[in-house]
Amino acid sequence: MRTFTEILDEAKKCPRKKVAIAVAQDGSVLEAARECQCSGIADAVLVGDTIEMARIAIERKVDINKFELIHEPDAEEAVRRAVLMVHAGKADMLMKGAVQSPVVLKAVLDKNIGLRTGSVLTHVAVFESPGYDRLMLMTDAGMNIMPTFDQKVDMVKHAVHVAKALKIEQPKVAVIAGVELVNPDMPSTVDAALLSKMAERGQIGDCIIDGPLALDLALSKESARAKGVTSPVAGQADILVLANIDAANVLYKALVFLGGAKITGLVMGAQAPVILTSRADSHEAKLVSVALGVLMTSKEESGGNSKRDDKSLKAV
């Protein structure tokens, strides 16, 4: 897939899913829920202050009576109830509404009702950039501040998993550093070299990893030729792995605000996809995030790799 339109079209072919939206009293969230339902991608369960939802819905011309509604004016309790629905198998994915991300993540990581799997939670962003000829993935701009090597392994695995749902059969992964040579004084270059060797020996799924690579090498074959670097990833990276959240967040926002890229993404590593879009994101971005979640859940079901807890719970 090369565009967000293709993501949406592919999601429409999948079995209809259900998304639990925590603290859903937000205009763009309600619009995204309407578009999901109208397109046949997913039904939404709106958890939150239904009185406020109704007020916002009138402004945005959204008929919330078409959705399943759960009235819970307390934000933390609304998040908890939405997470519990996913945990119990009553929804296929979780989406953040008008609430801070730490509140959502606290419930996701709750030992009793959360969505833990034992894996590190990582954020995988997907970009459609006018300056690149395909969809590009990046990790991790939203979760891990200064990831350890083991966490980087999980970051790569989760990003590869998303890439394969986008029909990128053998993703090319560029581990980004400031230079393309291994320097013991720069831990990011050492980690990059180790990741590359692990992939070479088949320890990180079906992907090609190279690093360390400077960003220009990852994105430009001409830069690689000029610097005399031979790499199976240079100039054709599908996934960018950044050394820390500072570098990733700066690149993430530069792509959007300077490069005009469209963006979507998921938090991976939980029992189900977690959608942590920003309140500043458009309803289109939130719609594509749900579509991406649909592709991920459908891929897991078709491959028999569902992570959902089999434990049955009482009604939410």
Topology of helices and strands:
Layout: H1 4-12, E1 17-22, H2 27-39, E2 42-48, H3 50-60, E3 68-71, H4 75-87, E4 93-96, H5 101-108, E5 122-128, E6 136-139, H6 149-165, E7 172-176, H7 187-200, E8 208-213, H8 215-219, H9 221-226, E9 239-241, H10 245-257, E10 262-268, E11 274-275, H11 283-302
Parallel strand pairs: 1-2, 1-4, 2-3, 4-11, 6-9, 7-8, 7-9
Antiparallel strand pairs: 5-6, 5-10
Helix pairs in contact: 1-11, 2-11, 4-5
Explain what this protein looks like in three dimensions.
This protein folds into two domains: 4-117 and 270-302, Rossmann fold; 122-262, 3-Layer(aba) Sandwich (Isopropylmalate Dehydrogenase). The protein is elongated and about 60 Å long. The protein contains eleven helices and eleven strands. With 316 residues, it is an alpha/beta fold.
